Amino acid sequence: MVSIKLKLKTKANVDGEHSIVLQVLKDRQKKIIATGLLVKKEQWDNKEHCFKTRHSNSMQNNRLLDTIKIKARNIISEFEIDDVDFTLNEFENRFRFGSKRSKIDLFEFWNSVVKDLELSGRTGYARNNRDTIRSLRKFHKKPVLHMREINVTFLDKYEVFLRSRGGSNGGIAVRMRSLRTIFNLAIRRDMIKQNLYPFHKYKISKLRGKRIKHALTMAEIESFRNIDCEGDVQLLNAKNYFLFSFYARGMNFADMMRLRWSDITQTRITYARAKTQGNFSLKIVPPVREILEYYNENRRDTNYVFPILLHDALTPMQIENRKHKILSQYNKALKILAQKAGITKNVTSYVARHSFAMCLREKGVSIDVIGETLGHQSVLTTKAYVREFGVEVLDEAVEVLLW
C-alpha cells in the first residue's frame, strides 16, 4: 500500500515560511520530496492539505499542488501496471527526472548521489565525486548536462581538457572512473538505457599509468628505523606511522587513523578495512608492539591508538577533514625523514604498503600469499587462493621481515 500526502516541514525559514513537501509512505518507509513551494502556517489548510483562500496566490498554487499529486499518483500507477515492486528511491528518481530517460541531467543526478554518500559517512568518496563534478562543469560550461550528450567524442574532448590543465594519466583515470560509476548507477536504477553507455568504446584502461611505484628495500627500512628524530614529535609520529604500516601488512593511513585500542588484544590486531570492509586479523610482531607501547604510554583521552583523531565523537566530515590535514603533514615529514636516512626515493605514506609487498617478495614469499596479506580482492591471481591460506601462513609471511 502506497500513500501520498502534502504537508509542511516543521522548521520555518527566517521569513516564517514553511516548505511544502510531498510525503510518500510505502511498506512503513517514508520519503520526503521538496516541492519548492513555501507558505506561512496560518495560510495553510492542514485538513485539506492546500493553501487557504486568504493566500494571495491560493488558486494558482493549489493547481500546482494538484499537478504534483497527479504526477505522483501516475508514477505509482506506472509501476503497478509494469508489476514493479519499486523502492522509494526509485519513486524519487522517477518523480525528479521523469520517465524520459534521455533528459536526465547528469549534474542533478550526481549531486543527489553525493548527498547520499555524505549521509552514509563516505565523505572521502563524496569529496572525490564533488571534485569530478566541479571539473566537468568547468569543461562543459553549461548548467545542465544531459546524459545522452556524453559519448566517446565528449569523453575524448574532456580528456584533452584535463591534459591541458596538467592532468596525468592517473588523475584523468580517476575522473573517468567516477563518471563511469555514475553511468552504471543510472543504468542499474533504470534511469537511462544501456545503449547510452559510452564506456563500451571509451576505454579507461588506456590511461593505466606506467609510473614506477616506489618501494624501500629491507636495508632502507632498517635505515629508516635508525633515524634519530631528535625530539621532534611530528617526525617521530611520521616515523612510527610509516613503520607501523609496513609491519602491519601495509595497513593504509585511513585504517591506522581509525584504529582503536578496543581492536587490540595481547597478541593480535583485528579491524575492518575502510576501503573494502574486509576483515583483517594481524599478529603483533615486535616492531608493532614497540610502537603500540609508546602510544599506550602517551595515551590521550580517546579510544584511538594514534594521535590523529583527537575526539571519539567526530562527525564523518570532521574525520575526513582531519585525515586530509594530518596526511598532508605526514607526507611532508616523510620527505625530511627520507633525507635524514639518505634515501633518494620519493617516500609517501603509500610507499610503506608497496615496500611491505616488495620486501616480502625480496624474502621469497609467493605472490599469492603477498596478495592475501594485502587484502587484494580483485586480483585474479590471488582470488583462487583466498580460502587456502590460514591466518598462521599470513603471520609467518610478515615474520620473515624480522629475519
SSE layout and pairings?
Layout: E1 2-12, E2 17-26, E3 29-40, E4 44-45, E5 50-51, H1 58-81, H2 88-97, H3 106-119, H4 123-140, H5 152-164, H6 169-188, H7 218-225, H8 233-247, H9 253-258, E6 268-272, E7 279-283, H10 286-297, H11 316-340, H12 351-362, H13 367-374, H14 380-383, H15 391-399
Antiparallel strand pairs: 1-2, 2-3, 4-5, 6-7
Helix pairs in contact: 3-4, 8-11, 8-12, 12-13, 13-15
Detailed description of the structure:
By secondary structure, this protein is mainly alpha-helical. The chain is 49% helix and 12% strand. The chain contains 15 helices and 7 strands. Strands 1-2-3 form a 3-stranded antiparallel β-sheet. The protein has a two-stranded antiparallel sheet with strand order 4-5. A hairpin with a 6-residue loop joins strand 6 (268-272) and strand 7 (279-283). Helix 3 (106-119) runs antiparallel to helix 4, helix 8 (233-247) packs across helix 12 and helix 12 (351-362) packs antiparallel against helix 13 (367-374). It is elongated and about 80 Å long. Residues 211-399 form the Tyr recombinase domain. Belongs to the 'phage' integrase family. Keywords: DNA recombination, DNA-binding. This is Phage integrase SAM-like domain-containing protein.
